[in-house]
Amino acid sequence: MRTERFTAQGALAGERLDRAVAAAVEGLTRTVAQQLCKQDRVLVEGKPAGKNTLLKPGDRVTVEIPDPAPQAAAPQDIPLDIVYEDDWLLVVNKPQGMVVHPAPGNPDGTLVNALLHHCAGSLSGIGGVIRPGIVHRIDKDTSGLLLVAKNDQAHLSLSAQIKAHSLLREYEAIIHGHVKEDAFTVNLPIGRDDRDRKKMRVTDHNAREAVTHVEVLEEYLGFSYVRCRLETGRTHQIRVHLAHLGHPVAGDPVYGPKKPAFGLGGQCLHARTIGFVHPATGEKLLFSSQLPAYFTTILDHLRKQP
């Protein structure tokens, strides 16, 4: 069972309980929230409350979400761009538009489906039957390098490196506007947006520390080409931090302009470099990938501008 907690603040204060739960808890629809209320799994100030309960400012809400019966992902023969592979792990170059693991709306055709076929089931089980081998994720429309663990020992080692901030993850992006400094650090906490549960935002409410190091590589008319190094790895971290500063990633359908720059179908963000210590050998490994065509096409266009 999973337990989620939030406090009725901002837009949630004065809201109906079922609406507030659906807005505050990722992955819950209003219908599911109503079912949980009916099952006495939603508590307000420690007591079961009905779906029509109006929340008062400061009310503490606890939501008990029973574990779903997971359905294992199925192997699918989908081509993979493998940068490195041994008996312990893989480094995969994920294309823009590919979902990492099955989820509502994307039941198959994901990276996990391809990995299950390629590895013949030899993947770590820590992520469960839906996320076998997945140590960290990148968004559907973010391209680039992703680490995959073939066994639990490798998974635990790589996860520990991420937690210790010793695993190098560098992204490159084209962003709107010009920034003042050539290099800077964004240290702003990120939490879920109270008004839209599918989005994240910079906030002190129910948030976690988030640190992104940014370096400006090139500047053009109205845009900049930057490198971002993750110190932490929160959901949508780079996209949220840059948008908060007024420099959303070009093409970002969630945090950027409604009309995507350059006609892009997703954010111009590429996980270009990854570095880590091998779980078995202790060797320091570093991998970089070529920028994909959608990215270089825009760079070529910007570089030709007067």
In terms of DSSP E residues, the strand content is: 25-35%
Number of helices: 6
Outline type: globular
CATH first level of the largest domain: Alpha Beta
CATH superfamily assignment of the largest domain?
A: Pseudouridine synthase
User: How many domains, in number, for the residues?
Assistant: 3
CATH topology of the largest domain: Pseudouridine synthase
Terminus-to-terminus distance: 58 Å
Q: Could you tell me the radius of gyration in angstroms?
A: 21 Å
The helix/strand class is alpha+beta
Q: Could you estimate the helical fraction of the residues in percent?
A: 10-25%
Low-confidence stretches: none
Mean pLDDT: 93
Biggest pleated sheet: 9 strands, mixed
Order of helices and strands: EHHEEEEEHEHEEEEEEEHEEH
Name of the CATH architecture of the largest domain: 2-Layer Sandwich
Total number of strands: 16
